[in-house]
Structures are given as structure tokens and as C-alpha cells.
Amino acid sequence: MVLNIILLLVGFVLLIKGADFFVDGSSSIAKLLGIPGFVIGLTVVAMGTSAPEAAVSITAGLSGSNEIAVSNVVGSNIFNLLVVAGMSAIIKPYKIEKTMLKRDFPINVGVSALLIPMLIMSNFLGNIDGIALLVLFVAYLAFVLIMAFKNRETQEEENIKTMSPVLSVLCIVGGLAAVIFGGDLVVDNAVAIAEALNWSETFIGLTIIAIGTSLPELVTSIVAAKKGESGLALGNVIGSNLFNIMFVLGLSTAISPIATDSSMVINAIILCVITAIVYIVSLINKGLGRITGSVCVVGYVAYSAYLIMTTV
């Protein structure tokens, strides 16, 4: 099992670094083609941070590890809301942009709530469910881009590093290969560890894999908070959570139907409740403070304890 743990960690490193290279290469190509920086941030960078979750969930779905495919998305979103946003608020309290409070956050609550009837109505998420989520993703992305172009004069261009076309393509291909191979390593060895310890795949997906694939968001948000840009943290969290449900879960189930169980319905309800509570608190306070951030982190510890008692 020691070898499985080492290979699992190697898989996480490949996922994270592969996503970095993929984002750098794709952003460079987009910049060379004259695409505005803010558009790159809304598309390439946002999807790049969700690449680890996508690789793991799609690989898990194709290999028959259905519990991991769904629990990875649900667990990552819970971790993002409670730990990533919470830790950033503890480091430096922040205000939230009105656009996010009026548009993106409510959409996140709605999409999270949509998972519940999808899981309750049948014992699996089928191809139709996946296609529906992907349609929502395309519609949301199109809407965000249209609004971004309309308000382009008020947006700051992101400082995106450009490379030569050849180096950019190498970064894209190499990064994508690392993400795919890393996803295989994570799923295969996580399943092996779960079997060796007699743990359920749901527990592994909701905890170890969810945390590992959320490391890019955690590192990015903590660095931003230390620089006094904590407001970016929640934007990163909301964007990632939306991509995880609509794109990652949508693409996974569109490719291969995923069986679910009652425990996943409960965790989906927990995700929806947490999302709604964080939204209400953010709406009332127009941001997140240290007390709220501390409550979020403690809440994740309590949630982890609940998982240990119910799913191990």
C-alpha cells in the first residue's frame, strides 16, 4: 500500500503541474491570437483549474469507479467553499463584487440544487443528465462572455505571459498528457488504497481525492489573500464550483452514465445547504470576515468527522 500512496501523490503532482502548463500554453496561444486577457481568464484559466477534477472524474467514470466520479465533484465543491474561501477570509477579510452576488453566486446555488433531483429521480446520472449540464455550461459561459465584452472598458487586462508558438503547443500537449496520466494514477491507486483499508470509494472521493484536486484553487487563493487580493478567492471558488458541476460532471456523465446511491444524495444536499448559507452570509455582510471564515474551516472539520463516522 506504501507504493499506492506514493503513486497517488505522484498523480496529484502531475495533475497540478500539468494543469499549470496547460493553462500557460493555452493562455499564450490565445494571447498570440489577439484574444483579450479577461476573456482568457474567464475561459482557459477557469477551465484549467478544473482540469484535475475533470481528469479524475472522467477517468473514474470510464473505469467503472462511479462513486469516485461523483463524490470528487461534490467533495471538491464543499472543500472550496469551506476551506479555500474560509482560509482566505481568515488571512484577510474581503468584500465581494456586486456582479458575483447578483449573478454568479445565485447561479451556483441553483446549479448545486439541481443535482439533488437529478440524483433522487433515478439511481444513476445518465447521458441525458450530462448533456443537460453541458448545455447549461455553454449557456452560462456564453452569457458571461457577452457581458464581459459589453463591459470590456471597465475590465483590467490580465498580465499573461506569452511564449513562442512552438513552446506554447509543447506546454499544451505536455500539460494535457500529464493531467490525463495523473488522473489515471490517482483513480487507480485511490481505489487500491480504499480496498486495502476497507474504505468506501465515496469516502476516498469526498476527502483525499477532492482535497488533492482542489489544491490549485487553495494555493491560488491563499497567495492572492497574502497579497491583499482576497476578493479573488471567492471568485475562484464560485467559478471552479460552477465548472465542476456543469462541465466536469456533465462531460463525465455524457461519456459514461454514473451510478449513485443514497449517501451521495445526502452529500449533494449538504453541498446545496452549505452553498446557500455561505451565499446568504455573503449577501448580508457583502463579503466574508475572519469569524465567518473560521466557522467555515471548523465546519469542514465537522463534515470530515461526519464522513468518517458514516462512510468509512
Helix and strand arrangement:
Layout lengths: L1 H31 L4 H13 L1 H13 L2 H26 L2 E2 L2 H24 L2 E2 L1 H24 L14 H33 L3 H13 L1 H12 L4 H25 L2 E2 L2 H24 L1 E2 L1 H22 L1
Antiparallel strand pairs: 1-4, 2-3
Could you explain the architecture of this structure?
The protein has 312 residues and is mainly α. 83% of the residues lie in helices and 3% in strands. The model has no long low-confidence stretch (mean pLDDT 83).
**Spatial strand order of the main sheet:** 1-4
Relative strand content: under 5%
Specify the number of helices.
Answer: 12
SSE order, as H and E?
HHHHEHEHHHHHEHEH
- Biggest sheet: strands, sense, closure? 2 strands, antiparallel
Average predicted confidence as pLDDT:
83
Poorly predicted tracts of residues: none
Distance between the termini: 17 Å
Structural class: mainly alpha
- Helix percent reads over 70%
Radius of gyration: 19 Å
Apparent shape: globular
Query: What's the total number of strands?
Result: 4
